[in-house]
Each structure stands twice: as C-alpha cells, then as structure tokens.
C-alpha cells in the first residue's frame, strides 16, 4: 500500500556547497540519500514529492560541515500482513518461488502454493504447473498473492506470501 | 499466541491414553527467521526464551543461491525424494561438475588479454574455445577444454547437471553463461564459494540430502571430496596457460598439485590461439558417463532402491586393469608401507592386484621408472610385461588399458616410449600422414608436369630449359618437406 507521508532527515553538507545553489544542492542530496531506502516504520521510500521546510544549518566546529534538518513529503510503500498485491515472478525454485512488488521481494513457499500445482524442474525455464495444465508459474508470470508476514533485518525487508486462497494465483494476460 | 497447534483427536473408544494431543509447529522451514508454515517470527521467539535450549538444529540451506532459507533436514529429504523419483522416471542421474582445471582454465594475465584484444574486435569478442569477460574490474580469459561442447551435449539428456566451484558467485555465473547461453543445462544449480566457504572441502550434503546413490562428480582434485571419493571421476587437471606458456597466475582456487609438466613449451604468448592440444579427457569421460548411465538403467527397477552409481563406477574402474598382477620397482620407498602408497591404492582401485615380491607365476606386469634388479629379472622371464610408470598413469587417466608394448622398458633405456596408440598421439600422427599424402600427390603432379613438358614444345628450347629447372626446384622443395615430415615422425615415435 502506498502512503504520502511527512518525514524529516538531517542532511550534512560540505562547505564548498555554501552559496546561491545551497537549496538546490540540499534537494538533490536528499533525493539521492532517501529514495530507495527502506525503514521498518514506513517501508520503502519511493520518491520525494516536496520539501516543506529546511531548517537552519548548524556548522560543526571541527569539520566545517553544516547539518540541515529537512522536512519533506514522500511517497512510501509499506506492505502489511494479509494485504493482496499483484507481483511479477522473478525466480522459481523447487521449494517455492520469488515474486517482486517494486522493490520488495516476496517468497512464496511450497506451502503457499495450491497442492495441485507441482514443480517441473526440467522445463526451461523451471516452472510450477497445475494438474489440468491450464495454469503455470514461471519467471515473468504475473501473480496475485497475499502477504503472510514481513520481517525487517539490517540488510532489507523480507516477506512471505501465499497464493493458496480463492482468487489468488497467476493472472491471465488478456489476449489482444 | 502466534503459533499454530496441530490437534489430533484420538479414538475415544480407547479408554486408556489421552483424549487429544497438542503439537506445536516444528518450524521446519524458515525464510530469514520467519517460519513458512505458521508465519511466526521464529528467531525473535527464540531470543525471548533464551533459557529454553533447543536441540542442535539440523537445518540446511538445500537450495542453491538462496540466502536466508533454512529447512529441516528431514523435510528436505521428503522433497528430494519426490524430485529424485521424477528424475528416475525421466531416466536421469545427477552430475556435479567442477569448473577450474576440469572443464576449463582461466587466466587474468594481462599479456594474454592484451594479445586477445589486439586480435578481436570488441563487437565480437568471443570465438571458439576462448572467451573473455570482465569481473570486478578484471578481465578474465577463459579457455574451454577440448571437446567440452560435445561432452555437454552428450550427457545433458542423461544427467542433471550441477556446477560446484570454489570460485565466486559472479565468476561461476559468468562461466555458466559461456557454457550454457540458452540456460538449458544448469538453470540455477550452481554452488559457489559463497555457499561453500571451506576452500579445502566440498560436500554434497546440502544439495543432495537424501543419498548420493545417483550422483557422480567430475573434478580434477580428489582431496576436496573426502567423503565422496566413491562418486568421483577424477580427471587430469587442465592447465592450458600453464602447460603451454608457463603462466603461474591462478584466478581462483589453488591448482590441484604442482606437477612438472612434460609438455611445458613456453610458446610465445601471441600464438596462444594456435596451440595444437592433445587432450582427450572430455571424450573419455563422456563415454564413461554414457556407459554408467546405460548400466544403471539396465539394472534399475522401481522396487530396487539400493542401486548405487558408486558400485557401478567402481566396477567400471575395475575393468581397466582386470586380471593384471603388478609389481612395482623403484616407485615405492622402502621405508614406507606399500599398501599405503598412492600408486598402490590406485592400482587396486582400477582392479589390479599388487605384489611386493617377484613371483614368475603370478606377476603379469613390472611397473618401473628405470632399470632395476626386478626389471632385469622380469626381462629374463618370458610373458611378463616390463612397463614404464606412465603406462599406469595413462591407463588410469584414460580409463582404458594401454598397449604395454608402447610403454615397454628395456634394461638400458629408461626413456619414456611414446605410445602410438595413445589417442592424442594417434591424432597427431594422422595429421602428419595426411600432410605426407598431400605432399606425395604434389610430387606426382610435378613429375607429370615434367613429362608433359619434355614431350611437346620443341620449338623454344630455352624456355623449355627454364621450365625444367623451375620444376626441378619445386621438386627439391618437396623433397625437403618430405624430410621434414619424416623427422617429425621420428620425433613423435
């Protein structure tokens, strides 16, 4: 789910940037530092939409760097337990498959896959195939899934999901 | 409570015993600490009850290149059994391949890269057996082993291929791209240094949790596969850049053993693409793998689960030196136990029996390095082969008993006789023969020309003379070529 939220961030700036372009530099630096970052509370920061306030810079005595408190609004993506999302399959293995929702990789284990779908290791690329042969899950398939749990670790956000419920599973691509 | 409990209602007709039993989730599969069965954060709950000491977990990672996933050994076995069953119905075995020194040789030596870049445009950088790629800011030049393509094509329908290398993940993936541009052979069955950090050993436990009865390994080193020696088909290390150019730089893992190469040529580097190689190991292995596959599925039946490739492999090896009785001379130091010596063990592995004393009734071969008492004794006895040590080496590396006469060792001479039956030599000889045939035809043609010239054209004698001298010159050249070819032949013999 996406949210538009107010956030703040301390930006450190080198003295060489102290000049007429100061605000411009701060905006650039903010974007490059926060976009794509992931926090436990807000999830992934997708993009900075506006800067609402730039505080007064404080210069550190020893280094000459100035620190500015920047308040900004950003679009964030945070996933919740039981949320239904559409995702693209990125990798298929014998114990489940991965699907990505933007920056988030969700793992769907074999326990989250309906029992009538079996792993077919010999096909290229490897895939899950339904008994009646009319549904397959391979790389680049679009699936609708339900997020079952998320976990935040130092190196990223991890989530597990399931397609073992009504109206979940591969989404048929409309024939044009 | 975030755990799911399994409830089992017992049969109430039974008077004794509990009415129902509760069983907590075993958390047998975890992804970054989240249980995949009950969605509980297992790591966190473990941290909460520190005093609650769980039994040593038997979790393994199981899947290639999948960080954060842990599965209980027993659970993994169940999945693996199912996959093995599918493989069996498809009549496939598993084959684990090492990369460096087995399938190919890589170098990051700047001299080769420079020479290679000079010759090839950037648009079409890879050609034939040579491939170049950039990894972590370094160029790597890869030379594939001769006949590798035929090998992969030959075994891919009979074996499920895995890569097991001590190179880095990125390196392994680059190589996989070269070997398998269509992603048909390996998919993601690649084990690299990241998954197997111990550089001195390789293990199948993580990826073949059930059993290793259907797994064969091809590697140039036997020391890393300590507990899986029975599955291993060891082949001669492939050291292209070192053998032919004396380059010592190693890209990845340490080379097998530093063995003094008899073919050390130290050619000029810019000629590296024109080396005429004599390496038939891939062909030898292909045939062997096909043989074992055929035997396996001849004997295999659904009911008989205990069939083991290890025994087939060992039988296949045993055939090589079957019915031979070897006596070593000058090869095993006196102060060591002969049964422990590698050469002894090797001979036994390939089906020979070995002796320590000369017994004219039993001994069939005397294997030696040079003249010795035993050699003299054996030469005096008819019916005993006296062969150089290289006979044993070549027989075991080609998985075929070599012709003893080509390795014959006389009393005086201790030079290694080069076998004409040695496949590589035979091939080289064939090309020499071809060249000589061509020369012969050429000479015959020149003679014909000369006859034609002397028969007609009488009016201009001067020009005739000129022509004749010319053709004589040509003849002379041909003679020289012939001599050269003869010399070559002698060298080869």
UniProtKB/TrEMBL annotation, chain A:
Keywords: DNA-directed RNA polymerase, Nucleus, Transcription. GO terms for cellular component: P-body; RNA polymerase II, core complex. One of its GO terms (biological process) is positive regulation of nuclear-transcribed mRNA poly(A) tail shortening. Residues 80-151 form the S1 motif domain. CDD domains: RNAP_II_Rpb7_N (cd04329), S1_RNAPII_Rpb7 (cd04462). Coiled coil: none annotated. The keyword Endoplasmic reticulum does not apply. Residues 8-64 form the RNA polymerase Rpb7-like N-terminal domain. InterPro entries: NA-bd_OB-fold, RNA_pol_Rpb7-like_N_sf, Rpb7-like, Rpb7-like_N, S1_domain. GO terms for molecular function: single-stranded DNA binding; single-stranded RNA binding; translation initiation factor binding. It is found in: Nucleus. Signal peptide: none annotated. SUPFAM superfamilies: N-terminal, heterodimerisation domain of RBP7 (RpoE), Nucleic acid-binding proteins. Belongs to the eukaryotic RPB7/RPC8 RNA polymerase subunit family. This is DNA-directed RNA polymerase II subunit RPB7.
From TrEMBL, chain B:
Gene3D superfamilies: BRCT domain, HAD superfamily/HAD-like, S15/NS1, RNA-binding. Residues 446-457 have a biased composition (Basic and acidic residues). Its main location: nucleus. Residues 444-493 are annotated as: Disordered. It is an enzyme of class 3 (hydrolase). The keyword Nucleus applies. InterPro entries: BRCT_dom, BRCT_dom_sf, Fcp1, FCP1_dom, FCP1_euk, HAD-like_sf, HAD_sf. CDD domains: BRCT_CTDP1, HAD_FCP1-like. Residues 88-267 form the FCP1 homology domain. The keyword Nucleus applies. It is found in: Nucleus. Residues 316-409 form the BRCT domain. It comes from the Eukaryota. This is RNA polymerase II subunit A C-terminal domain phosphatase.
């Amino acid at each position: 789910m996406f949210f538009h939220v107010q956030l703040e961030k301390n930006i450190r700036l080198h003295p060489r940037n102290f000049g007429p372009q100061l605000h411009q530099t701060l905006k650039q630096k903010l974007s490059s530092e926060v976009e794509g970052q992931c926090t436990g509370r807000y999830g992934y920061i997708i993009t900075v939409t506006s800067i609402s306030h730039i505080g007064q810079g404080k210069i550190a005595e020893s280094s000459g760097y100035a620190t500015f408190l920047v308040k900004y609004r950003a679009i964030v993506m945070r996933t919740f337990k039981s949320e239904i999302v559409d995702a693209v399959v990125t990798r298929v293995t014998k114990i489940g498959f991965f699907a990505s929702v933007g920056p988030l990789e969700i793992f769907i284990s074999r326990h989250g896959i309906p029992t009538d779908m079996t792993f077919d290791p010999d096909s290229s690329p490897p895939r899950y195939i339904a008994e009646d042969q009319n549904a397959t899950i391979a790389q680049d398939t679009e699936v609708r899934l339900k997020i079952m749990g998320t976990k935040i670790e130092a190196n990223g956000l991890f989530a597990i999901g399931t397609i073992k419920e009504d109206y979940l599973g591969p989404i048929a691509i409309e024939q044009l | 409570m975030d755990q799911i409990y399994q409830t089992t209602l017992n049969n109430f007709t039974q008077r004794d015993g509990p009415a129902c039993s509760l069983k907590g989730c075993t958390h047998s599969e975890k992804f970054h600490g989240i249980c995949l069965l009950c969605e509980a954060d297992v790591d966190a709950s473990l941290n909460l009850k520190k005093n609650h000491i769980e039994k040593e977990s038997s979790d393994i990672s199981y899947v290639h290149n999948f960080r954060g996933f842990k599965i209980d050994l027993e659970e993994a076995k169940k999945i693996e059994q199912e996959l093995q069953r599918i493989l069996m119905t498809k009549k496939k075995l598993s084959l684990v391949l090492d990369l460096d020194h087995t399938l190919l040789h890589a170098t990051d030596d700047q001299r080769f890269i420079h020479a290679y870049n000079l010759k090839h445009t950037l648009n079409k950088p890879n050609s034939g057996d040579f491939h170049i790629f950039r990894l972590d800011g370094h160029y790597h030049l890869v030379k594939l082993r001769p006949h590798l393509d035929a090998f992969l094509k030959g075994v891919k329908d009979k074996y499920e291929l895995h890569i097991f290398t001590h190179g880095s993940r990125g390196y392994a993936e680059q190589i996989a791209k070269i070997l398998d541009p269509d992603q048909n052979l390996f998919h993601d069955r690649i084990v690299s240094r990241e998954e197997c950090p111990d550089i001195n050993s390789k293990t199948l436990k993580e990826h073949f949790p059930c059993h290793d009865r259907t797994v064969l390994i091809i590697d140039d080193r036997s020391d890393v596969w300590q507990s899986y020696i029975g599955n291993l088909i060891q082949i001669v290390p492939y050291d292209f850049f070192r053998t032919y150019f004396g380059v010592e730089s190693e890209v990845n893992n340490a080379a097998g053993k530093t063995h003094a190469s008899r073919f050390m040529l130290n050619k000029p580097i810019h000629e590296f693409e024109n080396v005429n190689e004599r390496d038939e190991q891939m062909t030898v292995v292909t045939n062997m793998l096909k043989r074992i596959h055929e035997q396996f599925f001849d004997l295999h039946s659904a009911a008989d689960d205990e069939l083991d490739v290890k025994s087939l492999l060992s039988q296949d090896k045993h055939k090589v030196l079957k019915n031979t009785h070897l006596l070593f001379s000058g090869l095993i130091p006196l102060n060591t136990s002969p049964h422990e010596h590698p050469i002894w063990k090797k001979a036994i592995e390939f089906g020979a029996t070995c002796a320590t004393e000369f017994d004219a009734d039993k001994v069939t071969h005397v294997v030696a390095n040079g003249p010795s008492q035993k050699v003299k004794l054996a030469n005096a006895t008819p019916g005993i082969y006296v062969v150089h040590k290289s006979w044993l080496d070549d027989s075991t590396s080609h998985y075929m008993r070599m012709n003893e006469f080509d390795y014959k060792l006389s009393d005086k001479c201790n030079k290694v006789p080069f076998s004409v039956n040695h496949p590589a030599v035979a091939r080289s000889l064939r090309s020499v023969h071809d060249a000589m045939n061509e020369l012969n035809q050429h000479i015959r043609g020149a003679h014909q020309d000369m006859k034609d010239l002397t028969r007609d054209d009488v009016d201009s004698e001067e020009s005739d003379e000129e022509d004749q001298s010319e053709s004589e010159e040509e003849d002379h050249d041909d003679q020289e070529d012939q001599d050269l070819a003869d010399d070559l032949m002698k060298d080869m013999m």
